Amino acid sequence: MEVFGVDSVLAEELGVKHTSQEICQQPELWHEVYDVIKNQKKELQAYLEGAYADVDKIILTGAGTSAFIGLSARRSFHNQVGIETQAIATTDLVTHYRDFVQKQESVLLVSFARSGDSPESIAAVEHMSSYVKKCYNLIITCNEGGQLMRMNAEIDNYCVLLPSKSNDQSLAMTSSYTSMLLAGLLVSRIKEIEAVERQVNLISHYASEVINKQAPKLQEIARLSFDRAVFLGSGPFSGSAKEAHLKVQELTNGIVVCKHDSYLGLRHGPKVVIKQNSLVVYFLSEDKYARQYELDLINSIDRGQNPIAEIIISYGSVPPLNKGYEISFGDREDHIDEDFLTVCYIVPIQILGFYKALDCNLNPDSPSKNGTINRVVQGVNIYSQDK
Fold it and tell me: What does pTM read for this prediction?
């Protein structure tokens, strides 16, 4: 078996086995995630309806990559459920939980966690559960043995355990991220889950096309001599941009320094980081109103900045922009909601980061040579809650 043109035995010797497999398994894995959520529809819907009838707000949380899921899923919860929804990282909730909630409030805390062992993930659940009037906990995790899964008897919760192969073994999360993001979107639409199966089928098909046909193009881009990258996304794609910036930065051990922003936000100062040694990646909206601002910004970049390469990631073809690279999902004959596009839009960046790690002579499975970052965060002290 070959993955990205590398024999599986050689892949293991090179230290690329897990990352390559975890990227490539995603289209198939998403079908399994759909089945997990659909098979729990009755129980899950009952728990959520009880929570929705009582809570004042929904908070989507996680640490690191898991925190970015909330940025992409927030709109779906807000629009589908009709309750104020915020995306707040556990790393903020642990230290400043009183800035986000009132003691008299009831909250649904949706925790996304690959391992379920991050100290902040545990502490966020404990702090919120003991501080607010009532805290309902929906836990979406990839690890059956994680601490969050073992808290069942201590808190009011419902746990969604995703397929075991979503529990990435690589340092950088790939299939864990997309699986939990998809699960979150499906949970937000649990009442109509049968109707959105076609969306899952489409994003799976289009991601397979990118993996099987676009990898050589992304390898070509990775070989360019950029040492900084800027990722732009608006609306639900703000989460995609943030995850993309971390993914490439992690996989290259900081050799490529990355930044993320919105299209309009970039104009207010951050645009100066784009130099000739920069890669710029645009996640393009399907929203016609938002896209006007995005195209304006894209057309303005070449004037005096001249980045080494630009990539436009879109659904269907885009107007001629005279840019170097375009990664297109589908042809717009089939409707895909923007929320679901966030699941597959990150795949080309995962592939790019994989190849850039190799270009930097790093092991994609464990690129942090000096152990600066770890698969599960180390060295975090959790202090007694200040009430």
Answer: 0.93
